[in-house]
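Lecture notes, continued. The same structure-token format from the folding unit now serves as the input rather than the output. Read the line below as a description of shape only.
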């Protein structure tokens, strides 16, 4: 989960801006807990496509 669209219940501002201490704490906790949270969905799709391509190449090399 990313904090791009989360709204703080304390200050009603976007969590990604970190307007208050609650926003900043929650943003830091999200970034610490999931290392892939900072990646965009497009980057995750590109990473998945790369992994699939590597797997296919490895399979072809193993059967050759």
């Amino acid at each position: 989960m990313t904090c791009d669209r989360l709204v703080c219940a304390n200050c009603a501002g976007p969590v990604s801006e970190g307007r208050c201490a609650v926003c900043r704490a929650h943003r830091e906790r999200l970034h610490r807990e999931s290392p892939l949270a900072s990646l965009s969905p497009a980057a995750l799709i590109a990473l998945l496509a790369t992994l699939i391509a590597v797997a296919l190449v490895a399979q072809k090399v193993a059967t050759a």
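Point for the exam: The two ends are 41 Å apart (CA to CA).
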